[in-house]
Write a structure and sequence with these properties.
There is one protein chain. With 230 residues, the protein is of the alpha+beta class. It is 17% helix and 45% strand. It has a 15-stranded mixed β-sheet that branches. It is globular, with a radius of gyration of 20 Å. It starts with a helix and ends in a 7-residue tail after the last helix.
């Protein structure tokens, strides 16, 4: 291969690489920040950190972290919605939306509280939508849910809580134990078991710490069914 040939094709390959990089970046886009308040950050899969601003793009692999008294509302490309509550850390582990049976959303609740309302993927391929919180995995059925990890030392009992606003979920542990949680009930797996206590429980009362935030009214507007125009 002559030096002239290498230079010419190297230039062409450099342009092609740039185009492929731009395409891959677009393909990985999961959604955008619709609203934010207080201090919050986005950490990319490459460990780049930036402050959250309204309109920011959120990509597959990004982790959103909120501080005290801050919240972030994200609208995903399949029209699902995530409200990240204060003092939370949420990772969009995987997002793929091509209007295909392989469309997928996987979200990790690493700390704090997340409210999530299903969109097109949850309605068309509900088995492909998963939420993970510690050892619990939550599968949805056209659902509006709230997931919370309460750490030891809090005034509320430590563990993973899964309140169902609407629809139903299957809450499962890595031990193979499973339970169905329906509307206005709460799935719960305690951090520490009491003697004779089940690892998976269904609570009838909504946890007191689940308090509606300022973005809940906006969630209701975004997710309300549109009436046909006459």
């Amino acid at each position: 291969m002559s030096p002239i040939f290498v230079v010419k094709n190297g230039f062409r390959l450099l342009i092609l690489a740039g185009l492929l990089l731009s395409f891959n970046s677009y393909a990985q886009e999961a959604g955008r920040v619709t609203r934010s308040s207080g201090k919050a950050t986005i950490t990319t899969s490459a460990n780049q950190v930036k402050a959250v601003a309204n309109g920011d793009t959120v990509n597959s692999g990004d982790t959103i972290t909120t501080e005290d008294d801050s919240q972030v509302l994200i609208r995903l490309k399949d029209n699902s919605t995530m409200a990240i509550r204060p003092k939370s850390k949420i990772k969009i582990a995987e997002f793929k939306f091509d209007n295909q049976p392989t469309d997928t959303i996987k979200t990790n609740v690493m700390a704090g509280t997340l409210r999530a309302v299903s969109g097109q993927i949850g309605k068309g391929q509900p088995d492909n939508v998963k939420y993970e919180a510690n050892t619990a995995t939550i599968g949805i059925r056209g659902t509006d849910i709230e997931l919370a990890i309460i750490p030891e030392g809090s005034k509320d009992r430590a563990g993973v809580y899964n309140y169902v606003h609407t629809g139903e979920v299957q809450m499962a542990l890595n031990t193979g134990e499973k339970v169905i949680v329906t509307k206005e009930l709460t799935g719960f797996t305690p951090e520490k078991l009491l003697p004779g206590e089940s690892r998976l429980q269904v609570l009838k009362d909504r946890p007191a710490f689940l308090v509606s935030g300022g973005f809940d009214a906006l969630i209701n507007q975004l997710t309300a069914p549109r009436l046909p125009m006459r």
